[in-house]
Design a protein that fits this description.
The complex is a heterodimer of chains A (318) and B (516). Chain A has a four-stranded antiparallel sheet with strand order 2-3-1-4. The C terminus of chain A is likely disordered. In chain A, strand 2 and strand 3 form a beta hairpin. Chain A has two domains: 198 residues, Multidrug efflux transporter AcrB transmembrane fold (Up-down Bundle); 83 residues, 2-Layer Sandwich (Alpha-Beta Plaits), CATH 3.30.70.3220. Chain A is elongated. By secondary structure, chain A is of the alpha+beta class. By secondary structure, chain B is an alpha+beta fold. Chain B has three domains: 204 residues, Multidrug efflux transporter AcrB transmembrane fold, CATH 1.20.1640; 134 residues, no CATH class; 135 residues, Gyrase A, domain 2 (2-Layer Sandwich). Helix content of chain B is 52%, strand content 20%. Chain B has a four-stranded antiparallel sheet with strand order 7-8-2-18. In chain B, strands 3-4-6-5 form a four-stranded antiparallel sheet. Chain B has a four-stranded antiparallel sheet with strand order 12-9-15-16. In chain B, helix 9 packs across helix 10. Chain B is elongated and about 110 Å long. The chains are: A alpha+beta (318), B alpha+beta (516). Chains A and B meet through helix 4, strand 4, helix 5, helix 7 and helix 8 of A and strand 18, helix 9, helix 10, helix 11 and helix 12 of B. Strand 4 of chain A pairs antiparallel with strand 18 of chain B. Chain A: Belongs to the SecD/SecF family. SecF subfamily. Chain A: Its main location: membrane. Chain A: Forms a complex with SecD. Part of the essential Sec protein translocation apparatus which comprises SecA, SecYEG and auxiliary proteins SecDF-YajC and YidC. Chain A: It is found in: Cell membrane.
């Protein structure tokens, strides 16, 4: 049968790449990228989406190519000062952004909601134009959504730490979570550079990346644990290298399938999902490489003495 | 490991078939009446519609009760012939100074006999300076707040039903919030207006003596006119409450030809209305709606039939809406819209198309990958993948879950991750074959060793998404839910179904080498 045997393979059996020799290069590269991301996080900073920033976003489709002056005039006629009118997607799609009134004013929530109606009225005065989407998020809600988003991120990291600690030794848990935090900073750097808006959907993307990245590390760790029992005298560096090589085919296989699944979403998923999918794709690459180049070296540093100590055979027996 | 009993095979296949049957309602639109008909709902982001998050103004709930308590205190003391000074409300109650210290015991006795809405609602005590305090208990305040939200939900539901909206979803969120989801209504302006009105109608006597005075006497309040033309001093005491209405409708007034709202009281309301109008013929009676005087006609005769009419130079729409609001009842407190999201139908259709194409394309890519890289066992994984998609759809239908755009992304990613378990097993078998094991030994070792890895890796992913489900809102919860369900179905399809296919193939052909 023609589909009986696999036609392609990632790596041949018995591949032995000495990853641990390059561990300091890997760690240094990661450190540089993460520090750069942190700098980007503080300046210029993340582009906060509507969920977290609050405010008003109205997407409208006009008849024929959008006439920005006409739109601005229509908004002005409704006494709306738009913070931004820009094209979006196709030539006849426009995005109108408004800031919320300052939260210090007593009726800012009511005014935020009333502004949306004014924008709607402005759009309906334009011939053939229709509102595709109108969102208005008040200041109290956006603050709460942000807090919940961060809470979900923080608690997930803690739960992952606790689970790996429970299933493995603490060295595994700590190196996994340190690596995840490094992955996280790089994802944030990616968001700053690409200007994708950071909103709840992005938090979901980042959590998915973290879940995927953990998954990848667990598979390598699982093999390290197995090999620790199997090869009682092998030095840890060699043992980790062996484990990575043994799982390399799987690591590349799984990251390819997830990558392939997310790729169409990035290309044709539409405005609301393509950002999510690009972050996923970035995260798959980062998460896969960090298992090999970051998590494993950290495990080696933390476990060099400890993980081998009790396994080493007594000196006098031979 | 390498043996599947008939019963086990039958149950694995059975579950897949049940899953397939549960998917059917999503494909066949016509419900079969005798069968449980559950299907996936499309989220607002796919279907088009509006999402409103409302906050109940709790300060106003508390302030209302305090004002009522102050009014009751005054009435109680007056009825008992007792005097008071400095009657004011504080943050948690009402205080006053007795007219004379020796009256304090009588004051306490009279006030403690006041009716309570819930047992232990307030306590009456005398402080050190001789002041008497009526303090509301925090428990009762919490209960009142909870009741206010419950009641608001009921009123919101009635008002929205009256607009003719289809399948509205109204749910409580947290302590003081209400979520309103309106599929198909992409412009929520009218609904927002209806919900933004408290529609609290009360009838008060006008204090003619206070007209023109700068500071109203105690028990009298200056209330603005609805047309914006100045204010009118009315007694704070509510003579008749609009809550006692049984019906209201918009109609054209025969005499003036203007739009008016006709209303009918229930028996309590009719009795009260009759008594007040009988005792106050010749005086002005103010109709106050949401703290604005709509009109204040002079009472000509006692009105005993329980019918009345409000005329206030309304437009047809205003009269209709006021009638609708009066019928649905007043909100116990004002509602503020703090978040709204509305999506037009064309955008939703675009999203379904984009999501659907991406899902199909991703599925095909993953299937092609598995076939190219894993051969026969890859095809078994693909069969399991298809079953996975079917089971995910089945469970989502069973829960009558809402499919959102991020939810579609979640399904796609689940499919990408699902083959991981097959890859782990296949790679392991490949390794064991390379070590010189026989076909049987290699398959056995592959299943055995890979299982703990599969469970560990899926458990961590599960944890992350459960967190997201707990703390996320709206469409993001849909994403977390699909991934969580996807992880469960993945464990089933890979650990049971695809393994069964591999084992059956081995039992049938007894190969000496494996296609890895």
């Amino acid at each position: 049968m023609m589909f009986d045997r696999p036609l392609l393979r990632f790596v041949p059996n018995g591949t032995r790449i000495n990853f641990m020799r390059g561990r300091f290069i890997g760690l240094a590269t990661s450190a540089v990228l993460s520090i750069a991301s942190l700098i980007l996080f503080f300046h210029p900073g993340l582009t906060l989406g509507l969920d977290f920033r609050g405010g008003i976003v109205v997407e409208a489709r006009t008849q024929g190519p959008a006439d920005f002056n006409a739109i601005r005039a229509a908004l002005a006629a409704q006494h709306v000062a738009a913070a931004g009118v820009q094209s979006f997607g196709g030539p006849d799609d426009v995005l109108i952004r408004l800031d919320t009134p300052p939260a210090s004013e007593p009726d800012h929530e009511a005014r935020t909601q009333a502004l949306v109606d004014s924008v709607r009225h402005a759009i309906t005065t334009l011939p053939g134009a229709q509102v595709l989407r109108a969102d208005a998020v008040g200041a109290s809600v956006s603050a709460e959504l942000f807090r919940n988003g961060m809470l979900a991120l923080g608690l997930s990291l803690l739960m992952i730490l606790a689970y790996i600690w429970f299933r493995f030794e603490w060295e595994f848990a700590v190196s996994a979570v340190v690596t995840l935090v490094l992955d996280l900073t790089k994802a944030i750097g990616f968001l700053v550079l690409t200007h994708f808006e950071f909103d709840l959907v992005m938090v979901a993307a980042i959590l998915t990346i973290l879940g995927y990245s953990t998954n990848d590390k667990v598979v390598v760790y699982d093999r390290v644990r197995e090999n620790l029992r199997k090869y009682r005298t092998m030095p840890l560096a060699e043992l980790i290298d062996l484990s990575i090589n043994e799982t390399l085919s799987r690591t590349l296989g799984t990251s390819s399938t997830v990558f392939l699944a997310a790729l169409p979403l990035a290309l044709f998923g539409g405005a609301s999902l393509s950002g999510f999918a690009w972050v996923m794709l970035f995260g798959i690459v980062v998460g896969t490489s960090s298992s090999i180049f970051i998590a494993a070296p950290i495990l080696l540093l933390l476990g060099e003495k400890r993980l081998r100590r009790d396994a080493r055979p007594p000196a006098r027996t031979s | 490991m390498m043996y599947y009993s008939r019963l086990r095979m039958a149950s694995v296949i059975g579950i897949c078939l049940i899953g397939l049957a549960l998917c059917l309602p999503n494909v066949i639109r016509q419900p079969v009446p005798s069968l449980p008909w559950r299907q996936i709902h499309l989220g607002l982001d796919l279907r088009g519609g509006s999402y409103l998050l409302l906050q109940v103004d709790m300060n106003s709930v508390a302030a209302d009760r305090l004002r009522g308590l102050q009014d009751e205190t005054r009435q109680t003391l007056l009825k008992a012939g007792l005097g008071y000074r400095n009657l004011t409300t504080t943050a948690r109650g009402v205080t006053f100074t007795p007219r004379a210290p020796e009256e304090a015991a009588q004051d306490l006795k009279a006030l403690r006999a006041m009716p309570m809405n819930v047992p232990g609602e307030f306590s009456v005590n005398q402080g050190e300076g001789g002041q008497i305090t009526i303090a509301l208990s925090p428990d009762a305040a919490r209960q009142r707040a909870y009741d206010a939200v419950t009641q608001s939900i009921e009123i919101v539901r009635r008002r929205i039903d009256a607009t003719g909206a289809i399948d509205p979803e109204i749910t409580r969120q947290g302590e003081d919030r209400i979520i309103v989801e309106l599929p198909g209504i992409s412009d929520p302006e009218r609904v927002k207006k209806l919900l933004g009105t408290t529609a609290k109608m009360t009838f008060h006597l006008v204090s003619d003596s206070a007209i023109g005075s700068a500071v109203p006497p105690p028990g009298v309040e200056m209330v603005p006119m609805s047309d914006g033309q100045g204010t009118l001093p009315v007694f704070t005491h509510v003579d008749v409450d609009g809550a006692d209405l049984t019906n209201a409708s918009a109609a054209i007034d025969q005499q003036s030809g203007e739009w008016a709202v006709n209303f009918t009281f229930d028996s309590t309301g009719a009795q009260e209305f009759g008594a007040v109008t009988r005792a106050n013929v010749g005086k002005r009676f103010a109709i106050v709606l949401d703290n604005k005087v709509i009109e204040a006609p002079v009472i000509r005769t006692a009105i005993t039939g329980g019918n009345g009419q409000i005329t206030g130079s309304f437009t047809a729409q205003q009269a209709t809406d006021i009638a609708l609001l009066l019928r649905a009842g007043a909100l116990p407190a004002p509602l503020n819209v703090i978040e709204q999201r509305s999506i037009g139908p064309s955008l939703g259709a675009d999203s379904i198309r984009a999501g659907g194409y991406s899902l199909a394309a991703g599925f095909v890519l993953v299937i092609a990958f598995m076939a190219l890289f894993y051969g026969r066992f890859g095809w078994y994984a693909n069969i399991a993948l298809l079953a996975n998609l079917v089971l995910m759809t089945a469970i989502l239908s069973l829960f009558e879950a809402t499919l959102t755009l991020p939810g579609m992304a979640g399904m796609l990613l689940t499919l990408g991750m699902a083959v991981d378990a097959n890859i782990l097993i296949n790679e392991r078998i490949r390794e064991e074959v390379a070590r010189g094991r026989s076909a049987l030994q290699a398959m056995q070792a592959g299943f055995e060793r890979a299982t703990s890895t599969i469970v560990d890796s899926n458990a961590t992913a599960l944890l992350a998404h459960v967190m997201l489900f707990v703390f996320g809102t709206g469409p993001v919860r849909g994403f977390a839910l699909t991934i969580t369900i996807g992880i469960v179905t993945t464990l089933f399809t890979t650990l049971l179904l695809s393994r069964m296919l591999m084992v059956r193939w081995y039992a049938r052909t007894r190969p000496s080498t494996l296609p890895v």
